[in-house]
């Protein structure tokens, strides 16, 4: 492969990484926002996404969510995710 081709491949790869990071950041922000949505199905989907990434920030977010959530089933799911996340970070 020529030098120009390698540069094109490298630029394409780097561009893909940058676009992926931007999309991931937007998705994370949207899911955190949906955690407090009026729609229960959006909250459930957001719980699945937030629960998949253990971090101190998500522990605080889940604590706020559990205190806020009115539906018992969703609150229990949030509590379970919170316990699992706290244990994994210890």
| SSE pattern, N- to C-terminal | HHHH
Number of self-contained structural domains? 1
Structural class determined from secondary elements = mainly alpha
Instruction: Let me know the largest β-sheet.
Output: none
* Strand residues, percent: under 5%
Shape: elongated
CA(first)-CA(last) distance: 49 Å
Parts with pLDDT < 50 across at least 5 consecutive residues? none
Query: Tally of extended strands?
Result: 0
What does this structure look like?
The chain is mainly alpha-helical and 90 residues long. The protein has one domain (25-89). It is 83% helix and 0% strand. It has four helices and no strands. The protein has helices at 3-34, 40-51, 56-68, 72-89. Helix 1 crosses helix 2 (40-51), helix 2 packs parallel to helix 4 and helix 3 runs antiparallel to helix 4 (72-89). The model has no long low-confidence stretch (mean pLDDT 87).
Helix-strand blueprint:
Layout: H1 3-34, H2 40-51, H3 56-68, H4 72-89
């Amino acid at each position: 492969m020529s030098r120009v081709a390698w540069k094109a491949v490298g630029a394409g790869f780097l561009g893909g990484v940058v676009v992926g990071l931007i999309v991931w950041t937007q998705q994370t922000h949207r899911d955190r926002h949906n955690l407090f949505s009026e729609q229960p199905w959006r909250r459930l989907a957001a719980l699945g996404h937030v629960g998949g990434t253990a971090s101190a920030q998500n522990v605080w977010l889940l604590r706020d969510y559990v205190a806020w959530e009115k539906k018992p089933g969703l609150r229990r799911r949030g509590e379970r995710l919170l316990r699992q996340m706290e244990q994994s970070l210890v």
